[in-house]
Recover the amino acids of this structure.
């Protein structure tokens, strides 16, 4: 792979990830240019980058998802490379092709790698050929006799999921736990599928009960070297959105980890992967694991791995795009201690997680040994309605899992986002939950253990006295930016130290 | 300083007075008198001692709205004011529908004069990739409509009325 000099990078993204990439650029002496929609004027990512180019109205389809406008911005600033971040255009093979065709380096894999991995059927085939375990399954044509399906079912094993190929919403779906339940399940599933979808095609798939989401971070250069950077466990998910991630996985042992790492490297090599990517698996307590999909881009939770193995993945994305070779062997990639990430989202867990947008009046996050915060917003920023709800990621690193959990709990307790609703208290409840603490959470954790979650202070409940005292005292001190209501004459003294707007400290 | 915090429909009188010594305050909440020693108060972060306990808290305001998080506790919100005011709430009148959150109108499915039945989708809203629908809560006729596709709407502001 040829060396190409990268002096200017266009970051085709927003929020915390654009901030993260701009930071890596600065450290590498690369000029960073971000794009911004009209709704993101003055947003944090526009304040940390060297330059901003506005690319259209708030809705992403008219701005961040517009290949033509992103390419025009890259041409305007004389970019050498385009970093897509995650989401938006990051997994569009057509975008990657267009970027390269326009003469810019795409910070990520080739369009062909993305196409192969982006299609479920072609990815399954390629993985099977590369010896990467896939969820055993069988897709029927609809005219199989029961005997054929029986043979396939027994090949796949139990428990088994019988699904209507045309189905959805659980209709025509059966969980079969043993062979003697099979005939009845096939029969009724087909009847229901024919009735509901006028299509009796059935899909058989191994039912992965108690599965955990374990993914492997890979990093490949353009010179034929592909390394894995160990795993992350992301079983704590709500509606398929990860909310807590950690590494190492509490379930894996070194031999198991090595097997999964090797499988991920085979998967990446099978699609000619270059750059940072993630191979996702479902893993069972039995030691089995199955390919789920490959995310052909940087992932939200990449900092977990960065803290664990001590590498800057984003910097290496840029260096690989510039044609550099990875200087390590697999044996040199060693994790140390334990890392956990919590995603702070703008949503209201007390009201069915409705998105919460608006003005962030105060955003305070802790810092200290082993605490990192990647944030897309600061005090005073607006959270627009057009984009996802991720406000910030709190990532901690400590010598072992117990210490990391303690560090995360303390970090969550000393964070505050005021003015909009967030899931901070919900995250703390997860970190306190005995199933999580024991390291036994599966992908069903949120459904099984968090459904009845309630805030300790639901809307309309009486706040603790300390909160009222804190607010009253703050208002008296004149902090917070708003007018103080119904001042008595005793506080009208302009020379009082309490009225100094930039604070007062006892003993100073 | 004297004020009232409105928590739900409960009004809590609050008073703050400077004490004789620097950094000492008397804070009265709902009649209960508390002696408070301020440690630090800066930029929405405050630390004080109350009954020998050190309290760290974060505070912010937005108009009449007040936000507080005592470190380790839940974030609480309440209002400030002299009397109980009715906050704009969607569905106060069952025929009037409003967005429950700051969102964008994706589609308006009906026009003024249309006959609708309970459960019909009237307006489709979207915020942060999440779609919500305002559906008719009664049979009737669309009497007024005050939004169009593409509009950004505030929570609680009436968008459509069915009579």
């Amino acid at each position: 792979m040829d060396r190409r000099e990268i002096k200017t990078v266009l970051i085709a993204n927003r929020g915390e990830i654009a901030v993260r990439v701009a930071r890596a650029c600065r450290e590498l002496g690369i000029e960073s240019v971000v794009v911004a929609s009209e709704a993101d004027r003055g947003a944090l990512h526009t304040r940390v980058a060297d330059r901003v180019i506005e690319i259209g109205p708030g809705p992403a389809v008219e701005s961040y998802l517009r290949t033509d406008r992103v390419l025009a911005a890259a041409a305007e600033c004389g970019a050498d490379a385009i970093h897509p971040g995650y989401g938006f255009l990051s997994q569009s093979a057509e975008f990657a092709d267009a970027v390269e065709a326009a003469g810019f380096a795409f910070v990520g894999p080739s369009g062909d790698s993305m196409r192969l991995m982006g299609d479920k059927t072609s990815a399954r085939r390629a993985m099977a050929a590369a010896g990467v375990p896939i969820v055993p399954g069988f897709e029927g044509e609809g005219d199989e006799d029961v005997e054929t399906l029986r043979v396939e079912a027994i090949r796949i094993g139990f428990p088994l999921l019988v699904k209507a190929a045309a189905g959805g919403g659980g209709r025509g779906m059966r969980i079969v736990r043993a062979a003697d339940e099979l005939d009845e399940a096939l029969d009724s599933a087909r009847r229901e599928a024919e009735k509901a979808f006028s299509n009796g095609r059935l899909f058989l798939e191994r039912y992965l009960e108690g599965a955990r989401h374990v993914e492997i971070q890979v990093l490949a250069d353009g010179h034929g070297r592909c390394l894995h950077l160990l795993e992350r466990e992301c079983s704590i998910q709500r509606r398929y959105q990860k909310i807590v991630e950690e590494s190492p996985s509490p379930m894996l042992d070194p031999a198991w980890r090595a097997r999964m790492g090797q499988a991920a490297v085979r998967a990446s090599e099978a699609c000619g992967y270059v750059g940072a990517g993630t191979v996702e698996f479902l893993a069972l307590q039995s030691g089995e694991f199955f390919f789920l999909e490959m995310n052909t881009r940087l992932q939200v939770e990449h900092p977990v791995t960065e803290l664990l193995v001590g590498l800057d993945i984003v910097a290496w994305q840029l260096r690989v795009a510039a044609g550099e070779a990875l200087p390590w062997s697999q044996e040199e990639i060693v994790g140390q201690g334990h890392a956990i990430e919590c995603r702070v989202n703008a949503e209201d867990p007390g009201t069915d997680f409705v998105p919460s947008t608006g003005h962030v009046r105060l955003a305070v996050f802790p810092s200290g040994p082993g605490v990192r915060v990647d944030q897309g917003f600061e005090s005073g920023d607006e959270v627009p309605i057009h984009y996802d709800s991720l406000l910030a990621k709190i990532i901690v690193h400590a010598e072992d899992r117990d210490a990391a959990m303690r560090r995360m709990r303390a970090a969550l307790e000393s964070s505050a986002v005021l003015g909009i609703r967030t899931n901070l208290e919900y995250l703390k409840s997860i970190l306190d939950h005995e199933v999580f603490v024991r390291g036994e959470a599966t992908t069903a954790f949120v459904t099984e253990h968090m459904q009845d979650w309630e805030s300790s202070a639901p809307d309309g409940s009486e706040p603790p006295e300390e909160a009222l005292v804190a607010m009253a005292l703050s208002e008296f001190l004149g902090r917070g930016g708003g007018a103080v209501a119904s001042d008595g004459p005793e506080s009208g003294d302009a020379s009082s130290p309490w009225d100094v707007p930039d604070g007062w400290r006892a003993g100073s | 300083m004297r004020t009232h915090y409105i928590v739900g429909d409960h009004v809590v009188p609050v008073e703050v007075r400077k004490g004789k010594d620097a950094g000492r305050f008397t804070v009265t909440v709902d009649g209960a008198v508390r002696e408070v020693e301020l440690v630090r108060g800066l930029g929405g972060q405050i630390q004080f001692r109350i009954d020998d306990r050190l309290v760290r808290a974060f505070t912010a305001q937005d108009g009449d709205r007040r936000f507080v998080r005592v470190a380790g506790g839940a974030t609480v919100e309440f209002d400030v004011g002299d009397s109980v005011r009715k906050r704009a709430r969607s569905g106060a009148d069952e025929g009037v529908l409003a967005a429950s959150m700051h969102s964008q109108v994706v589609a308006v499915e009906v026009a003024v004069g249309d006959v609708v039945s309970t459960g019909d989708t009237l307006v489709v809203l979207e915020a942060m990739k999440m779609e919500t629908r305002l559906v008719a809560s009664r049979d009737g006729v669309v009497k007024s409509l005050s939004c169009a596709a593409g509009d950004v709407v505030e929570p609680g502001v009436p968008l459509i009325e069915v009579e």
Notes: Chain B touches chain A through 73 residues (CB under 8 Å).
